[in-house]
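Suppose you are handed a protein chain with no further information: no name, no annotation, nothing but its sequence. What can you learn? This example shows the usual starting point.
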Amino acid sequence: MKTSACPTGWKSTGYFMDTPASVMVVAAIESGTLVMVRQYRHNLKRHTVELSVGGVSDGEDPEDAALVVKDREPILDNVIEQYFDMSVVEIPVVEVFDRLGHDIDGMETVGALLLARPHLISVENRCT
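A reasonable first move is to predict its three-dimensional structure. Written in structure tokens, the prediction is:
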């Protein structure tokens, strides 16, 4: 728990989490699609579509961790998919941006996609 004070004297007390380092991968493939993960989020009571993520070990280069995530996601095994109700999906780049705020609405995923969009224009153009 931490208490913060504003210059006006107003105080606020709250909790914060310091989470381990992680990477998020925007994986675009030649066909003009993005590789994403569709999974059921119990707290939301619905499925969401998200980018692939993974942890970064102490001393590990984030780029190396991202390569592990990129290679891991397309081959989720059936046991993991059934237990966690998740699957790998390919979505055309042009469709991804239309789905923001619908089934693609996690702030980390939305932010990463918006930051990556200038780099995805050539992929997007191949689809149109």
